[in-house]
């Protein structure tokens, strides 16, 4: 709700009157009215009353509000009668409340809106709202979409919208479950591609610099390679591949390099990826059982858990035979 | 602290129960006088004195007069733990300056200190015995002398601290030799050789509490200079080797490592080892000092330097363009990078590769909210959360609270995950010491479990060897007179003794020696983790000093 006073809850005294007047005003000024015009037309009203009236009108969907650049840089809010077509639209024949709910849901776009929020904004009771929503669902006006963010959370959006990737999780979610096998396979394939690139660069060039540069690949190249492999049934975008490449960076297996754009060119630096060889072999601590030992903190020289009695050490030694 | 536990264990191995007990008492109380030690351990003062003497002799303990006029002893745990590095140090000396250097360094390591003269004398003997046994020709003392001088010049050996005496001739504290002198050879002695003290065990020469030796005090000039191994220099050398290996591994090319080695060799001479960044070296100098047998073309060197500075700026950076480009090694940053690598390795092995991904997201983004992590790592949010909390529980990641409101209500607070590298390094270091201690204990157990068998085996070998000698002597004496039957008889005798050790026992021995070998190898690997973390943490303890005049290597 787009007005200046957020906390108006006191019952308006005479708001019916104000509401009617405002609607009339709107009909006069088809381009929209602002607060100043209303104030001039309703000199007896105080700001609280005006805002209450406007809010009620907005809630019931009779007027809409929009922003317009004012004379100064401050944007001003303009109110206008709602277009009959949109108000009526798909909810033709529906009552006020249904219109209201429909509007709330449509405002949420493809990100959807949670039922609790609809309730709070519409001020409708739980059973009533549930009934409305069910009704609308069956009319195929809206649909419920499960969000990946929380298992039980459902959001509502208009029926013909494609849910946003933050709701579905993008390419990585299958049936609302994270498809980590898919993500892992892609992670490995991208790595393999960069590995082969690095190996072939090493074969082809003798110059260290040429070897280094030959191992570089852009996200587009990797994307093309993955597409050609045909391992994915869904269409992956270059951005999806970039996500995967990022995981490889976090894994410490590849490195991202930004090639500086040529002087004068307007392009921004291009991102390139290259295989990263490890700095060290597995560290010494992890080559003995104590490194992974779950009870290392309880292990004492003369205790129930001790190197003398330790089965991990024993098995480890027997393992080398 | 696991480090102290380990140190005391090593002390026991090297110097026996009593010294270890006394060492423990001093370590735990911070510093103590002989009387205090005797009182709290119940060991007679005379014995305590001897033990303390051994500790001082090996540079493990230091002493100082306290304000009541008593001598306080302090034990440096690090010095004890260095003992695990002895094999490495000896190998290093051998690689650099051959067998003579190895022998001398070995002697100094195990005896603590010696004068140059006695050292050269005993070690020439020992080395020649070895050479004779191998059938090689002997060497002259002058060779050892030359190597000794080299070791001193390159700061691998240094002069010991000298005791300062009070009016009554008691040694009251130790004074490090002055900076100009630590690495200076005494002037060459002329004909009149003073052999007075040679051969005497050096421990007698160190005067502690009360012993007075006026003669020695008088001519402390040359032959009385005691030398010891300069651990710090060796450690610096090892550190450089680690850096070189890391670069070679990352760039997957030995030559890249050699370029760095050349730069580091130069830095050894110009830079204080505690410095964060080395003194820059020009491209021309690198080129001139690059080992010829690498056969690296000028252009290739240029390329390697470019690759190094572009892809591993934490190691090598270009500081200026003069002289064909000035290059410096960022020692601290390189160590930090390596320390991170070791910790990452721990995370990967202990928590799994998915956890490593999370860990590195936090490292790269520094301060990050849980939701951001979940978005970055491409795994189910729940799994990510589980892994994250597991690392949090073991203190590998930390949380900063950022409350939006003064009431710190959780719903209005940002929880930012971060990694405090130094804290984690300490956690890992402590565990490494603990693991080292466990492996050492296990090794001793394996040894002692098989001691009886091993002794039996040794006895058997001795008997067989003497029998065979007898036989061959007889053969030489009587020649033809020995019949084949007699020979068979002999063989049967030998076989009978051989069968003293059953097949099963033999297998048992085999197994034990494999175990011991494996445990030793693990100690070395553990040492590399410990070494790196210690080197890194040592640099974080104090800010780099604003460059002292020159040589920093002394204690
Ligand atoms: S000795 Fe055994 S119980 Fe103790 S820390 Fe090592 S693996 Fe764990």
Automatic annotation (TrEMBL), chain A:
One Pfam family named in its UniProt record: RNA_pol_Rpc34
Signal sequence extent: none
Localisation: Nucleus
Coiled coil segments of this chain: none
GO cellular component: cytoplasm; nucleoplasm; RNA polymerase III complex
Any Gene Ontology biological process: transcription by RNA polymerase III
Keyword Ribonucleoprotein: no
Source domain of life: Eukaryota
Protein keywords: DNA-directed RNA polymerase, Nucleus, Transcription
Keyword Transcription: yes
Protein purpose: DNA-dependent RNA polymerase catalyzes the transcription of DNA into RNA using the four ribonucleoside triphosphates as substrates. Specific peripheric component of RNA polymerase III which synthesizes small RNAs, such as 5S rRNA and tRNAs.
PANTHER family in UniProt: RNA POLYMERASE III DNA DIRECTED , 39KD SUBUNIT-RELATED (PTHR12780)
Stated family: Belongs to the eukaryotic RPC34/RPC39 RNA polymerase subunit family.
Name this protein carries in UniProt: DNA-directed RNA polymerase III subunit RPC6
TrEMBL record, chain B:
InterPro entries, per the entry: POLR3C_WHD, RNA_pol_III_RPC82-rel_HTH, RNA_pol_III_Rpc82_C, RPC3, WH-like_DNA-bd_sf
Function field: DNA-dependent RNA polymerase catalyzes the transcription of DNA into RNA using the four ribonucleoside triphosphates as substrates. Specific core component of RNA polymerase III which synthesizes small RNAs, such as 5S rRNA and tRNAs.
Domain RNA polymerase III Rpc82 C -terminal: 147-333
GO MF terms, alphabetically ordered: single-stranded DNA binding
Taxonomic lineage of the native organism: Eukaryota, Metazoa, Spiralia, Lophotrochozoa, Mollusca
Record localization: Nucleus
Transcription listed as a keyword: yes
GO CC annotations, alphabetized: RNA polymerase III complex
GO biological process, one term: DNA-templated transcription
Keyword hit for rRNA-binding: no
Keywords (A to Z) from UniProt: DNA-directed RNA polymerase, Nucleus, Transcription
Assembly information from the UniProt record: Component of the RNA polymerase III (Pol III) complex consisting of 17 subunits.
Superkingdom of source: Eukaryota
Family, similarity comment: Belongs to the eukaryotic RPC3/POLR3C RNA polymerase subunit family.
Major location (coarse): nucleus
Organism per entry: Littorina saxatilis
Segments forming domain RNA polymerase III subunit RPC82-related helix-turn-helix: 6-64
Protein's name according to its UniProt entry: DNA-directed RNA polymerase III subunit RPC3
Domain called DNA-directed RNA polymerase III subunit RPC3 winged-helix: residue spans: 343-419
């Amino acid at each position: 709700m787009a007005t200046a006073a957020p906390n108006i809850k006191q019952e308006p005294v005479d708001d019916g009157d104000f509401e009617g007047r405002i609607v009339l005003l709107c009909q006069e000024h088809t381009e929209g009215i602002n607060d100043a015009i209303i104030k001039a037309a309703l000199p007896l009203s105080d700001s609280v009353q005006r805002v209450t009236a406007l809010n009620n009108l907005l809630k019931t969907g009779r007027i809409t509000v929009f922003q317009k650049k004012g004379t100064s840089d401050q944007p001003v809010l303009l109110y206008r009668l709602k277009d009959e077509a949109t108000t009526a639209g798909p909810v033709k024949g529906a009552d006020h409340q249904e219109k209201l709910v429909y509007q709330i849901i449509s405002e949420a776009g493809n990100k959807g809106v949670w039922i609790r929020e609809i309730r709070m904004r519409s001020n409708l009771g739980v059973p009533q709202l549930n009934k409305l929503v069910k009704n609308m669902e069956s009319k195929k006006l809206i649909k419920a979409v499960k969000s990946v963010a929380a298992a039980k959370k459902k959001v509502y959006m208009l029926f013909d919208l494609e849910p946003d990737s933050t709701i579905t999780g993008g390419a990585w979610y299958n049936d609302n479950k994270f498809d980590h096998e898919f993500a892992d396979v892609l992670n490995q394939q991208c790595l393999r591609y960069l590995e082969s690139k690095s190996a072939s660069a090493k074969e082809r060039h003798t110059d260290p610099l040429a070897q280094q540069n030959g191992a570089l690949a852009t996200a587009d190249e990797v994307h093309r390679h993955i597409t050609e492999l045909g391992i994915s049934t869904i269409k992956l975008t270059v951005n999806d591949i970039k996500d995967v490449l990022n995981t490889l960076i976090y894994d410490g297996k590849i490195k991202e390099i930004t090639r500086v754009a040529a002087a004068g060119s307007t392009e921004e630096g291009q991102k390139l990826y290259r295989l990263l060889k490890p700095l060290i072999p597995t560290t010494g601590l992890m080559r003995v059982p104590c490194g992974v030992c779950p009870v290392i903190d309880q292990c004492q020289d003369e205790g129930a858990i001790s190197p003398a009695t330790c089965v991990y050490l024993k098995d480890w030694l027997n393992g080398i035979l | 602290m696991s480090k102290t536990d380990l140190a005391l264990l090593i002390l026991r191995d090297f110097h026996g129960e009593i010294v270890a007990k006394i060492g423990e008492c001093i370590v735990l109380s911070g510093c103590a006088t002989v009387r205090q030690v005797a009182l709290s351990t119940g060991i007679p003062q005379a014995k305590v004195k001897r033990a303390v003497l051994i500790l001082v002799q090996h540079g493990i303990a230091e002493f100082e007069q306290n304000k009541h006029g008593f001598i306080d002893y302090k034990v440096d745990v690090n010095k004890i733990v260095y003992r695990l590095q002895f094999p490495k140090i000896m190998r290093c000396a051998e690689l650099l300056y051959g067998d003579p250097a190895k022998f001398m360094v070995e002697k100094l390591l195990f005896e603590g200190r010696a004068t140059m003269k006695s050292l050269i004398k005993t070690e020439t003997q020992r080395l020649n015995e070895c050479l004779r046994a191998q059938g090689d020709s002997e060497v002259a003392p002058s060779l050892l002398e030359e190597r000794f001088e080299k070791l001193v010049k390159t700061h691998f050996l240094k002069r010991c601290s000298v005791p300062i005496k009070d009016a009554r001739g008691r040694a009251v504290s130790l004074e490090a030799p002055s900076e100009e002198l630590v690495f200076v050879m005494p002037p060459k002695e002329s004909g009149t050789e003073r052999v007075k003290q040679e051969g005497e065990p050096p421990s007698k020469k160190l005067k502690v509490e009360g012993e007075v030796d006026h003669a020695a005090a008088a001519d402390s000039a040359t032959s009385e200079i005691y030398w010891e191994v300069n651990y710090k220099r060796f450690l610096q050398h090892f550190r450089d080797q680690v850096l070189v290996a890391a670069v070679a591994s990352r760039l997957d090319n030995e030559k890249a490592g050699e370029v760095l080695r050349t730069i580091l060799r130069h830095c050894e001479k110009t830079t204080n080892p505690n410095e964060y960044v080395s003194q820059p070296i020009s491209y021309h100098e690198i080129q001139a000092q690059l080992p010829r047998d690498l056969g690296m073309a000028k252009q290739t060197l240029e390329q390697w330097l470019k690759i190094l500075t572009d892809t591993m700026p934490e190691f090598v950076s270009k500081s200026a363009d003069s002289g064909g480009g000035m290059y410096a090694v960022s020692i601290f940053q390189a160590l930090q990078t390596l320390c991170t690598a070791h910790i990452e390795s721990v995370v990967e092995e202990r928590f799994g590769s998915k956890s490593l991904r999370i860990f590195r997201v936090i490292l790269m983004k520094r301060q990050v909210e849980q939701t951001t992590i979940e978005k970055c790592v491409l795994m189910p949010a729940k799994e990510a959360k589980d892994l994250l909390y597991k690392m949090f529980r073991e203190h590998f990641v930390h949380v900063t609270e950022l409350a939006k409101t003064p009431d710190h209500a959780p719903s209005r607070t940002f929880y930012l995950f971060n990694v405090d590298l130094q804290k984690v390094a300490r956690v890992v270091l402590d565990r490494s010491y603990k693991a080292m201690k466990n492996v050492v204990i296990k090794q001793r157990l394996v040894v002692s479990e098989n001691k009886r068998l091993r002794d039996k085996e040794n006895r058997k070998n001795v008997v067989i060897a003497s029998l065979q000698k007898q036989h061959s002597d007889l053969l030489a004496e009587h020649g033809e007179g020995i019949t084949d039957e007699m020979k068979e008889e002999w063989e049967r005798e030998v076989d009978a003794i051989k069968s003293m050790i059953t097949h099963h026992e033999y297998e048992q021995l085999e197994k034990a020696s494999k175990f011991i070998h494996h445990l030793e190898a693990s100690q070395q690997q553990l040492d590399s983790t410990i070494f790196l973390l210690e080197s890194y943490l040592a640099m974080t303890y104090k800010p780099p000093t604003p460059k002292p005049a020159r040589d920093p290597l002394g204690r």
